[in-house]
Write a structure and sequence with these properties.
389 residues; 12 strands; four-stranded antiparallel beta sheet; alpha+beta; 35% helix; single chain; 13 helices
């Protein structure tokens, strides 16, 4: 049975929950069935309950905010911990060493070790990571963070390989760094709200000063702002660059559907360094010149013959706006039918089910080539809105 990678199943293997998942450290990241609920979740459609924060949560957030300082153009923060747990995290040296050996042997076999090593050497040169000196006798006194490489194949990706760190690593009977860390409250912007705002002709309300942008304009580290006033977008771009430079962050990927702003971004050397005609906008492909949206290109896996592989293929088509719902809803219905049939995750589907999936996978493949206008007229405004991302 082939291994299902995290990039293949997209949102199902890495969902952004609005609640604490107490089982996340129990199951492997490659456990597709763990993310099954997100495929049918109301959160995926933007239907969530209004969040309320306790006094304790507000206190922890305030403590974290107060710990942020800028020194020598670098940000320094104090990580929030559960005080009664952090001192009990044991050394996981033997576990980390086993992971290291496994990753090293695989990279050597695939002739990718040097490529992966260069990532860390580059980060060291840029001051992102630093070396520490630890004698062999002290190995068991430290907590180590195992890591492995993840490869990106999208054209828009300028970093094709990057390390992913596993802070859930722990020896048997111990607790991990993740368990000792205070997870904080959910400050994630509403993905559906941001996408709808992105498609609207809403005029920019105010010029953002020093990147103090409203929460609804951010999703993790992605800032997307629409507006019909090009001058405001240029000012926003200038403020963003200035604000990031204060923290020694070099803005390298910025774009717009406004020709005048794209020209300034390109002159500054901050246009995305890839050869694709599309930009990635919250999971969708966006063509800045035609002002159109399409689904991100994924492998429809027409040869999938188990429930696990079919689920991975269905979930790979990320479409929170339901632009292609006539196709994607059929995928969810098909998964439901496989579930009702009582098939195991690795069990081969019947020939009839296989033919149904092959037909459906063709529609999934074709859906990727549908281009829909980004613009959605709102309140009588029909001019093409400019935006910056």
């Amino acid at each position: 049975m082939s291994t299902v990678s995290i990039t293949a199943v997209n949102f199902v293997l890495a969902p952004q929950y609005n609640y604490v998942d107490s089982y996340k450290d129990t199951f492997e990241n490659t456990s597709v069935e763990r993310g099954l609920d997100s495929l049918f979740s109301l959160e995926l459609m933007g239907l969530t309950e209004e969040e309320t924060f306790s006094d304790f949560e507000r206190k922890k957030v305030k403590e974290f905010q107060n710990s942020v300082v800028i020194e020598n153009q670098c940000y320094y923060v104090k990580l929030p911990w559960w005080e009664d747990k952090i001192g009990k995290v044991p050394s996981n040296y033997s576990v980390a060493l086993a992971v290291l050996n496994r990753v090293f042997n695989k990279l050597e076999k695939e002739n990718k070790y040097r490529e992966y090593l260069d990532v860390f050497l580059e980060q060291e040169r840029e001051g992102i990571v630093e070396r520490i000196v630890v004698t062999r006798e002290e190995y068991e006194k430290y907590v180590w963070i195992p890591h492995r490489p993840v490869y990106k194949t999208e054209e828009q990706s300028t970093t094709k390989v990057r390390p992913v760190f596993n802070c859930s690593s722990k020896p048997k009977g111990g607790i991990s760094i993740n368990e000792a860390a205070y997870p904080g409250v959910n400050l994630m912007g509403n993905l559906l709200q941001l996408l709808l705002h992105f498609r609207s002709n809403d005029i920019m309300r105010t010029v953002i000063h020093k990147m103090n942008a409203p929460k609804e304009n951010f999703y993790v580290d992605n800032l997307i702002k629409t507006g019909n006033v090009p001058e405001n977008l240029v000012q926003l771009y200038t403020n963003v660059v200035k604000r990031l430079e204060e923290g020694h962050f070099d803005l390298r990927s910025c774009s717009s559907n406004r020709e005048e702003l794209r020209h300034k971004i390109e002159k500054d050397g901050r246009m995305p360094q890839h050869h694709s005609q599309y930009e990635k906008v919250l999971g969708y492909n966006y063509d800045t010149k035609s002002d159109s949206l399409s689904l991100a290109k994924t492998d429809s896996d027409s040869g999938a013959n188990t429930k696990r592989r079919i689920l991975a293929a269905v979930a790979a088509h990320f479409d929170p706006l339901s632009l292609c719902v006539p196709v994607t809803i059929r995928g969810r219905i098909f998964i439901s039918e496989l579930w009702k049939a009582g098939l195991g995750w690795a069990e081969t589907v019947t020939s009839t089910q296989q033919k149904s999936w092959q037909s459906l996978s063709k529609d999934f493949f074709s859906a990727q080539f549908l281009h829909l206008s980004k613009k959605v007229p709102v309140r009588g405004l029909y001019s093409k809105p400019g935006f910056i991302l």
